[in-house]
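Working notes for the structural subgroup meeting. M.R. asked for a predicted model of this chain before we commit to crystallization trials. I am recording the input and output together here so anyone reviewing the notebook later can reproduce the run.

Input as submitted:
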Amino acid sequence: MSQTNIYHSFLETPSKKQWKKIGLQRRAGVSVPLFSIYSSNSVGIGEIPDISHLVDWCKSCKMSIIQLLPLNDMGYDFQPYSAQTSFALDPMHLSLTQLQNVSVNDFMPEIESLRKSFPTGRERVDYKIKSAKMALLWKMFNSRIIREPSKFKSFLMKTKFWMRDYALFKVLKEKFNESKWEDWDEPYKMKDPSAMESLEKEYSDNILFQEWIQWQIYEQFRSSKKDAEKNNVYLMGDLPFLVSRDSADVWSNQQYFKLDSFSGAPPDLYFANGQVWGMPPFNWENIAHNQYDYLIEKINYAQNFYDMYRVDHVIGIFRLYTVPVSEPSENAGLKGGYDPADKEKWEEHGKTLLHVILDNTDMLPCGEDLGTVPPCSYKVLKEYAIPGLDVQRWSRDWDKTYDFILPEKYRKNAVAILSNHDMCIFSAWWKYIAGTIEEIVFKRKCESRGIDFELKKNELFDLNLSAHGRLHWKKEITDESVFLWVLGKPEIEAKDFLDMFKSSYDEKKRFWEYVGMPGDPEHEASAQFIEKALKKSSETRSVFCIQLIDDFMSLGNAVRKDPWDIRINFPGINSPNNWTIVCPVSLEEMKKMPINKTIKKIHTSTDRL
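Returned structure, recorded in token form:
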């Protein structure tokens, strides 16, 4: 099924330079948080050299893209999409045995002790590994054989835009017990020149340590990148559109951010109260005044490690939903607005930023365009041949037939996926969400119409099958007329209720038939069913098809728990389980899994590499 010719139009767009580098092939890939994977050499968490093992696995499964979740330094909050920097990478992913300019053998007893204290293969990451590694790295730094070589000095020259401010920020975070920069003493908070000069003198070794750490990461990552290049595997980074308010970026460039607002998302079908993320919106007028130096430097540094990159919340390039800092937290995102406020400016605003991005890097951008998406986003991404995200479970003929759209109807400029890090994996969707509606949304609609929510909840839904805030329709609610009769409202007064019903009550049956399964839908997803769903996604005309590693793992018998718990992140919820899930098998074991042949067959049969 050769479809390569349908992508030639990409070479007639503003991203033609990037497509010439990547090629117009249909590609398959895997999306992976580095903290989730591990090898026999890892100490407590996935490490940068482990990427080379992952490259080998991808080759055996006929995949040529590895999408890595954000690797920027998170500090000690461990929220990857709200990092302390858009530049520096997190030192907890360093391999202690592959440091340069250090006599590693002298520290092997301590490294082995760490390995025993923080064994890999547990169900969850123990992030105490970061403090433990940093303490040992400090000892190794102080024992280095010779002073830094010339390539270290060259590295500092390449990173002079951000490195010194980042190192100062890290030193100050430690000095003030990790408190937010806005709570520091005034001279440090406002970067008073004399205070900074004194700090540099007093903490010169600590500053050098932070720079040395980033150089070590750079060298290890460059080595893994070369391994990927040798095997014709592309690395896709994840560059969040936003950065934490408590970050080196915001502290050192306060004029580039609007500190009176939080970014977020308006209420939608999945988050009834909207969302407040906490990251500050950009002051694009001030950034533009300096020729977009901040944006250009960020993508230029990332290009050292990646061939492609995913822009989280790419629709923020056009407009960003913001909530005033003064808004009570219980209102979440209910009372916000868009920036720019004038929707007539959104398309021009997005195009300006995209040209800056495309003109200053060879990396191909891909956009996460989910949520409440303005029409101009779809239009411009198509015009620029920038792939967006097409999620299988959400790709339907909404408001009309509600059918799942056929593979040939997917966007060419898209990454086809079953799940991403903010969603439950496919098998959990099938077991708990498909064929249900969100309870909080139904309750809010009932209360706004004077309908007794508790009564209708019991009359319409099977509460034994309902779980995780989702309401499962009773089998007796078979069609629209029965639903309206039980609801007690005529169609003219219940159009929004009716839309919820029509989009969900027979969702399982529609999807079951869509992927070509015989008979009646099963309650839980079998390996055969998951394979059918993966193949259907791979059949789409989307140029890329990248699946979450946990959806691939679901093909085998390695999954060891309720699929609901195999989730990377629950957005809008502070949970100790967020950003901690660990792959059930090591990278060495992954290379030997029987399911690798199944994954390879899916990609071979759908003309992907």
